[in-house]
């Protein structure tokens, strides 16, 4: 990585100052997969609710339940409308007549993000005065299209000052960016289910998507300002307030952020939060900065007195992330099947209650038989299926499943795949990257000969066809022959290419040309 502060050519998603941003390209790479998980989990909980609640009622009871639900939703919508009107007496609504400088910033951000939905922004002295018990400095609420943002005045700053205007631009952009991420494309359906409180029982599977939208908002805000220093100062301000932010040291904050990221208690505590811990947002912003403005990130990194190695590792993991937008249509298909199955089950159960409660007098004619629609779910995609799909297509035909526990308790699937007489390939899937790395390190530190015969001693990183580091590879010699051992961190796979007749260098060359993903 270059240590000189020279701005590289802009990435494909960059835009000139004032121009509209490519919001889709700037989305956090985990947003699609996390949304797919949230949607399927919510659909499953909805199906269970339909089956248990509506299925236990007669047809008349179901009708009464639906009417009551509609009444509750209407009352809730009216309540939030009244609350929004009440804000006019307790806060200052941002418009050209009240806060023209802030309104100009807000309109500029809306234009750059192509945010055309209505949103009311209010400024208050303390958020807790308007919303009882609230300790945050900003608050965003939405209900069936009603969007309100509350911001404490201390975060806005003196808008006659250029630096404060830039930080305010970041603040407005991250709030509006998160809203845009949550209310575009498919997410309207999930918003409705979330409003109905059907996401409560699967909250740990829904909140990761909400946190990803916050990361998207931060990325959009950084793209709006185009200045890493301004963006980080805005993060400092949200952490400790305006008066202390100027004294906050980056080296100490990076160290604390890395501690928060590694702490298992804090990771579990974040599961139920719709907003990530602020130190995690800080690291995510730095990871995005390395890809968005490499020169600015290199300059920031030069100023750190410590933690550069750990920070580089986190940034490298960010770089390897890939968007999985193709999962969203599949998630909708599975979700629709689950909900329809819940509706069908509820109707079938309620019909049984209706029949049981109807007295029969005299002979009856047999009712015509009808065939209930059958709703099926898609076949389960097991870890073994995923591992076999990872094997090159030309080698899959000879693969046979083996016992994964031979490679440790964390192994979930394994295959042996002969490629002819020799070499022989073995693939093992693990439940987590940490377990995979632990097993691999056992080979690295073992009493084996790890010389590949071509200058490679111990393990080195290998690069995939996309040009990014995918994992580690090394040679390992035993009395039975030579092995090439590699890891694929993103896929959670440990692989072995083994031969009793080839040399280490020849086997590594064969792996590189035939097997390497």
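Sequence proposed for the structure above (517 residues):
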């Amino acid at each position: 990585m270059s240590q000189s502060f020279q701005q590289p050519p802009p990435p494909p998603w960059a835009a000139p100052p004032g121009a509209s941003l490519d919001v889709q390209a700037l989305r956090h790479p985990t947003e699609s997969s996390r949304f797919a998980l949230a949607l399927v989990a919510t659909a499953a909980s909805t199906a269970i609710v339909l089956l248990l609640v509506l299925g236990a009622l007669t047809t008349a009871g179901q009708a009464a339940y639906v009417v009551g639900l509609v009444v509750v939703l209407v009352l809730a919508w009216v309540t939030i409308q009244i609350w929004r009107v009440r804000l006019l007496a307790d806060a200052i609504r941002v418009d050209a007549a009240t806060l023209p400088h802030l309104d100009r910033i807000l309109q500029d951000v809306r234009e750059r993000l192509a945010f055309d939905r209505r949103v009311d922004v209010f400024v208050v002295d303390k958020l807790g005065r308007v919303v009882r018990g609230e300790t945050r400095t900003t608050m965003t609420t939405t209900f069936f299209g009603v969007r309100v943002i509350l911001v404490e005045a201390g975060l806005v700053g003196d808008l006659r000052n250029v630096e404060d205007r830039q930080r305010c631009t970041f603040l407005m952009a991250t709030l509006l960016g998160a809203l845009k991420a949550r209310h575009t494309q498919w997410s309207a359906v999930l918003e409705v289910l979330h409003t109905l409180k059907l996401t409560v029982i699967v909250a740990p599977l829904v909140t990761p998507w909400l946190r990803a939208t916050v990361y998207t908002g931060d990325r959009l805000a950084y793209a709006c300002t185009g200045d890493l220093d301004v963006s980080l100062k805005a993060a400092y301000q949200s952490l400790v307030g305006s008066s202390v932010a100027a004294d906050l040291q980056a080296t100490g904050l990076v160290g604390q952020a890395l501690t928060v990221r590694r702490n298992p208690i804090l990771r579990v505590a974040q599961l139920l939060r719709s907003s990530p811990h602020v130190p995690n947002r800080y690291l995510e912003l730095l990871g995005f900065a390395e890809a968005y403005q490499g020169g600015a990130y290199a300059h920031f990194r030069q100023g750190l007195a410590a933690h550069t190695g750990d920070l580089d590792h986190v940034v490298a993991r960010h770089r390897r992330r890939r968007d999985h937008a193709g999962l969203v249509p599949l998630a909708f298909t599975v979700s629709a099947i689950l909900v329809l199955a819940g509706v069908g089950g509820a109707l079938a159960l309620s019909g049984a209650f209706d029949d049981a409660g109807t007295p029969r007098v005299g002979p009856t004619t047999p009712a015509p038989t009808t065939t209930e629609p059958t709703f099926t779910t898609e076949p389960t995609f097991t870890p073994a299926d995923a591992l076999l799909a990872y094997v090159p297509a030309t080698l899959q035909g000879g693969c046979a499943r083996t016992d994964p526990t031979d490679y440790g308790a964390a192994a979930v699937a394994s295959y042996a795949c002969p490629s002819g007489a020799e070499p022989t390939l073995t693939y093992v899937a693990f439940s987590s990257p940490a377990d995979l790395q632990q097993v691999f390190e056992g080979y690295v530190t073992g009493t084996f000969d790890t010389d590949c015969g071509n200058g490679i001693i111990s393990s080195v990183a290998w690069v995939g066809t996309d040009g990014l580091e995918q994992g580690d590879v090394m040679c390992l010699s035993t009395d039975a022959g030579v092995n090439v051992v590699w890891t694929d961190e993103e896929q959670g796979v440990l692989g072995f290419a083994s031969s009793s007749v080839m040399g280490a260098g020849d086997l590594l060359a064969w792996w590189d040309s035939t097997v390497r993903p």
